[in-house]
Structure formats: structure tokens, C-alpha cells
Amino acid sequence: MIDKELLAILACPETHQPLAEADAALIERVNAAIGAGDQKNVGGGAVTEAIDGGLLREDGAVLYPIREGIPILLIEEGLPVGG
Fold it and tell me: What pLDDT digit, counting tens, does each position of 11-45 carry?
């Protein structure tokens, strides 16, 4: 989904850790949580719009959503997913 050359230069805006495309299982799990009203973003806001994909921080703790092919690399829009 994301060009490999672009992905190689992208990093978490908060920690500067490398990012990798999230697998389909994680995207499905996050979208299920969004659908159930259980997903909040790092900023504490409820997430109501499903994501098309995501970029997972190297430590696995935060997923940056991709919507309409555009990665949303804003700290407060990151989705806590564990780690």
C-alpha cells in the first residue's frame, strides 16, 4: 500500500522509531474495536472511522492509521494497540 522508498524514510513523529505496514489481522482487530466503540486515539478521543491500513511503530505500541491511502502521522491520532 505504501511505497517502499517512502516507508524507508517515515518514522514515528513522537519517538522517531521506524514504521512498518501493519498486517491484515491487526487492521481487522483495530477496525473491530472501532466498530464496537472501544478504540481511542493517543489524544484520548473516540475513533469512529474505520481505517484502510496502518503503520505500526517498531515497538508495536502505536499504529498510525492510513485513510484513503494517506498515512496520518500526527501523534494524537496514533492508535494504542499494545506492544
Answer: 999 999 999 999 999 999 999 999 999 999 999 99
- Main-chain dihedrals φ then ψ at residue 21, nearest 5 degrees: -65, 135
Name which of 53, 52, 51, 63 is nearest 17 in CA terms: 63
How far is Cα of residue 49 from the mean position of the Cα atoms in its chain? 13
Model confidence, pTM:
0.93
Separation between Cα atoms, residue 51 and residue 30, nearest integer Å: 8
Domain-wise residue ranges, the chain = 4-80
Please report the beta strands in 1-83, taking only residues with DSSP state E, as ranges in sequence order: 19-21, 53-57, 62-67, 70-71, 79-80
Distance CA 55, CA 19 (A): 6
